[in-house]
Amino acid sequence: MAHVPPPPVPRLCLGVTGHRDTHPLLAGKRPQVEQVFNEICDRITAAIANEAQTLGDVAPVRLHGVLADGTDRLAAEAGAARNWDLVAPLPCGRDFYTAIASLPADGADVRALLAGKDAQAPDVQQRAAALRAWLGRVRLFELAECDAKLSPFLLATVDDPDNAEAARQFEWHLSERVAMAGRVMIEQSDFLIAVWDGALRNLPGGTGHTINEALHQGAAVVRIDPADPGNWHILHAPEELHANPSTEGREDALAALVRTALRPGEGGALRAGATALGNEAWHPRSHPLANAYRRVEVLFDGEGRPFRSLKEEYEAPEAIANGSAAATMQAIRDLPRLEADFATRVDQAALRRFAWADGISTWLSDAYRGGMIANFVLSALAITAGLAYQPLGLGKWPFALAEFLLLSTIVTITALGVKRRWHTRWFATRRVAEYLRHSPILQALGVARPAGRWPQGIKTSWPEYYARAGWREVGLPEVAVTPDYLRSALSDLLARHVQDQRDYHRNKSRRLHRIHHRLDKISEWLFILAVLSVSAYLLVELGAALGWLAADLPYLIAKPATFLGVAFPTFGAALAGMRYFGDFERFASISQMTAEKLDGIDQRITLLLSAENNCLTYGEASELAHAADAVVVSEIESWQSVFGGKHITVPV
Fold first, then answer.
1. Which of 50, 177, 350, 648 has the smallest set of CB atoms within 10 Å of its CB?
2. Which residues in 147-298 belong to E strands, given as ranges?
């Protein structure tokens, strides 16, 4: 018996960005900024407590920040005081970050800090000790793959202060790294809290740039102006950066941000959807009476053995980590320096929920699509059964009874499908499964779809929020991302997943093209046979009228000809209805396009892996992961647009 994975616990995820202590406005009004920041945190805490009355358990807030002095450190203190979960996506490795954030002016101190040792300058060592204390208290996601490449630039800036080119190069590279850490933070957060003076927003990695990126990604920003901290306000779109800020209704708007993150979409739909998913009955294997759709596929796909067994065994959630996902889990465990607990979190939060949703969805797919195909077949049989008494020369009532039973079966299947919501439940659970299918690969790379960039369902969005909440449970891995880590993640996780999905869609496209073509041809031939049967009867009538044939011959063949004239187009129409319902040609095209996109990504991965280690960067690797995710989401959206309105119904 499969065990139901527990639903994800709602969690608010925040990001923080802002000026450092060296900024004159923050330095002059730090107490006021700190007071306002804590007031906002208190309002967030109160809003969460209010939502918890409806939701039940809510996980501690997760706060993301880079722990620089100033705003980030202020936020960490506020989060720690409230027992929030603190996570730091660092733009470089911890020692490299300590070396630059401690502001050393001497080359010996830089080298000591890079080696994890103490600096000689008291003020530098004080800053280093304070930062190290925080680094030891939080979960770190260190983008350390470029540290070795950037170290010479950093040393050149202190060994030769007059080297303007070295300073420019280092500043450019560092800004790029900070911007990358900011992107990771945005992807992991529901909204941001920012302390910003409203000045520069085009400096990569700067506060204004991070705010602008967050708004473009659909994340709101709670902005505190250090010149007037009490005048904090909420930004929802990048265009608002050019408008005069409004503080009207800001408290309610902040509570709404929290509510949207914890109870998104249709109010309590996340909880209701998660409860419904958990209450689904688990079937360990497919039902033989629900295989009609898959039987049509194997009958017309031309791959042989059309009458082979179609029984499917559904993989239980607790078995998937050692079953179909064993290679993925082993690849995750083999990633260099990755925290041991990460694979366990992936198994429990992503894989088990995927297996549950996938098994439920597959069973519902058989019921819904198999039921509709059965309706097409039964309708054709009902019509022909009602007429079969004529060519057989028998009494009508047995055939009328057979027709009645067949029509009653159609009504029963349709009523069951509508009452049990086969289509709606299949639609929702399939979306959950597809979002979670590739999540372990993205999670190992610290990649996530920003909260404002998730697709919206046609009538319900709980599957998207369910999947997103599952991703949030895993969170960023605690690891130093090195070139070796990126190479392993790209080759053993992302490349393998992309290749498997590409091959799956290639084969699917070929199969569906063949199925569509064969159904189309058989429907045409059945129509031609109908024309031929009617034509033959008319020729016999003409021949009898002209005396070329026996006069009673038209009478003898009238009933068989009538039967065939009805049966051929009836079954042809049934096959055409199956072809229309299955939309095999359109799905073949969707899979073909998906395979081509994935093949392009695979080629890019191959090129990147062929480079030297010092050329592997997190930005390039994460971009490929995002590209693969975009292909998956695009395929899901295309699939939704095709099947969204095809509810089970009588075949009329």
1. 50
2. 191-195, 220-224, 233-235
270 pLDDT band, cuts 50/70/90, is: low
| Two tokens, residue 81 | 């005081």
User: Could you tell me if 63 and 12 are in contact, meaning their C-beta atoms sit under 8 angstroms apart?
Assistant: no
Mean pLDDT of the chain: 91
Q: Are residues 581 and 634 in the same domain?
A: yes
What is the rounded CA–CA span in Å between residue 408 and residue 419? 16
Residues spanned by the domain of 406: 288-643
Domain boundary among 247, 262, 277: 262
139 DSSP β-pair partners: 87
Cα 202 from Cα 597, distance rounded (Å): 32
Strand stretches in 219-375, DSSP E = 220-224, 233-235
Query: Which pLDDT score is estimated for 264?
Result: 65
Alpha carbon distance 513, 516 (integer Å): 5
Domain co-membership, 297 together with 221: no
Residue 373 near residue 292 (C-beta atoms within 8 A): yes
User: Helix %, strand %, coil % for the chain, to 5?
Assistant: 65, 5, 25
Q: Based on the domain organization, do 153 and 254 belong to the same domain?
A: yes
One-letter amino acid identity for 221? V
Q: How many CB atoms lie within 10 A of CB 117?
A: 12
Euclidean distance between CA atoms 244 and 252, whole angstroms: 19
* 229 closest CA partner among 398, 9, 26: 26
Q: Is residue 267 part of a domain?
A: no
pLDDT in tens, 203-247: 787 899 999 999 999 999 999 999 999 999 999 999 988 888 888
Half-sphere exposure of 77 (CA within 13 A, CB side): 13
Instruction: For residue 341, count other CB atoms closer than 10 A to its CB.
Output: 10
Does 471 lie in the same domain as 419?
Answer: yes
Task: Please tell me the distance from the alpha carbon of residue 544 to that of residue 561, in angstroms, as a whole number.
Answer: 16
290 DSSP 8-state letter: G
Helices (H), 489-617: 495-545, 553-582, 584-609
Q: How far apart are CA 219 and CA 15, in angstroms?
A: 10
| Residue 268 resides in a domain | no
Sheet holding 233-235, edge to edge: 233-235, 220-224, 191-195, 13-18, 62-64, 85-90, 139-143, 479-481
Q: Which residue from 422, 393, 377, 456 is spatially nearest to 641, judged by alpha carbons? A: 456
The SS3 assignment for 397 reads helix
Residue 6 Rama label (left phi>0; alpha psi -120 to 50; beta): beta
Domain boundary among 221, 244, 262: 262
At 457 the pLDDT is 66
- Residue 530 to residue 575: CA distance in whole angstroms: 14
Same domain, 498 and 598: yes
How many CB atoms neighbour CB 122 within 10 A? 8
Task: Tell me whether residue 602 is in a domain.
Answer: yes
Token pair of 644 as six digits: 């969204």
Establish if 273 belongs to a structural domain. no
Strand partners of residue 481: 143
* 102 pLDDT more than 60: yes
DSSP annotation of 313 reads B
DSSP, residue by residue, 399-442 = HHHHHHHHHHHHHHHHHHHHHTTHHHHHHHHHHHHHHHHTHHHH
Structure tokens given for 610: 């062929």
